[in-house]
Amino acid sequence: MFERALIHVDGPAGAGKTTLIDAVLTGTHEYEGIIRTVRAWRDDSAAEPQVLVDAPDGVEYRFAEPNADDFFMSDIGDDIWDVVLIEGDEPTGLPNLIVHVLPASAGPLLHRRRFKDGLARLRGLLIDKGIPEREVHEIFELSMQLYGPPKSTPPVTEHWAIAEQHRSLARAALVIVNVRDDSERPAADALLAEVARLRGDPEVFADLQTALTGGRTRITAVAADLTNRKDPGTRKALARIRRVFPPTD
What we know:
By secondary structure, the chain is α/β, with parallel strands linked by helices. It has a domain at 5-104 and 165-201 and 215-242: P-loop containing nucleotide triphosphate hydrolases (Rossmann fold, 3-Layer(aba) Sandwich), CATH 3.40.50. Helix content is 32%, strand content 24%. It has an eight-stranded mixed sheet, with helices on both faces. A two-stranded antiparallel sheet has the order 7-8. Strand 3 and strand 4 form a beta hairpin. It is globular. The chain starts with a strand and ends in a 7-residue tail after the last helix.
């Protein structure tokens, strides 16, 4: 049976996504399968998906909405590979693994957010879960057509929410805090404690459980110097990524 693995490397700009991909490529050199890398960009103005082979940073894939058929029918999908590492926006909605990379200097991952009503909060949770905004909008439009507007407006409420630039945390099975020197270790530990709260803090989990992929399933979260293959966090991260590689025999 032919197997393939899609690994989405996400995170804010400058977090170290490219550094991680380089570490994967050099740290799994004994893997006998074919690994490809793609930079994916969401462009709402794109009439159709576009593959840019001669882009400055390698192969690029631009798309308007995540669509697995479009991706696998593109030149990238037609190519021969066992693993593709996708940096940037996720174009399929079907990744085998989402890795969220963030710098040790990242701001708070969680915050208290005021929602005007329950529907606004549910929209945010569904988007955090990875459902495209267009589909979320269509779901609520259909609900309005079938059931009409709410009979009453609930009061403004405050709940825990994931910071906008870290929304993929809700779906990530691996979180890496990129540590560039030992002075950043305390800040990295604080961020790892926040990651643990997603599923370990009852109040946070109650507010976010609709968005969290895997429910209370523990995720792998490490602080790692991604430039050092011998760093314990880097080794643990690479081992977690390697687990989704398909067999080649």
